[in-house]
């Protein structure tokens, strides 16, 4: 669901119509309702959950502005796969873009 887009709306409604509600609690969660809703709506869960996504793909949350640039997130993902860490912001600015929230200056020493 976290990687989903608008196409999942009909699937969520279908699961709800089958009785799904409060599914965050184990005693209410019935996975088969969701599988049935996916099948009815032609949703392949592997498309959302298991496929690699290219960095250029438009993601469902790309329209949100949280002041951290997509370029930074791509760079951090690549660094993580290289087993590299990024210094803490208070030590060195990593250029994430969030400094726009505090007037454009970083906390760290450049």
Structure description:
The chain has 110 residues and is mainly α. The protein is 34% helix and 0% strand. It has 4 helices and no strands. It has helices at residues 9-17, 31-41, 45-49, 70-81. α1 crosses α2 (31-41).
Q: Count the beta strands.
A: 0
Mean pLDDT: 89
Percentage beta strand? under 5%
Radius of gyration: 20 Å
Poorly predicted sequence stretches spanning 5 or more consecutive residues: none
Distance between the termini: 39 Å
Estimated structural class? mainly alpha
Shape: elongated
Helical segment tally?
4
Helix content: 25-40%
Order of helices and strands: HHHH
Defining traits:
about 110 residues; mainly alpha; 4 helices; elongated
Task: Explain the layout of strands and helices.
Layout: H1 9-17, H2 31-41, H3 45-49, H4 70-81
Summary, kept brief:
The protein has helices at 9-17, 31-41, 45-49, 70-81. The protein has 110 residues and is mainly alpha-helical. It starts with 8 loop residues before the first helix and ends in a 29-residue tail after the last helix.
């Amino acid at each position: 669901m976290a990687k989903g887009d608008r196409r999942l709306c009909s699937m969520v409604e279908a699961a709800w119509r089958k009785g799904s509600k409060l599914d965050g609690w184990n005693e209410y969660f019935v996975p088969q309702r969701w599988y049935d809703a996916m099948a009815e709506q032609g949703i392949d869960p592997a498309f959302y959950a298991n496929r690699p996504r290219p960095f250029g793909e438009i993601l469902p949350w790309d329209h949100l502005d949280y002041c951290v640039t997509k370029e930074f997130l791509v760079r951090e993902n690549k660094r993580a796969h290289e087993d590299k860490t990024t210094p803490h912001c208070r030590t060195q600015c990593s250029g994430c873009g969030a400094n726009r929230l505090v007037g454009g200056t970083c906390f760290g020493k450049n």
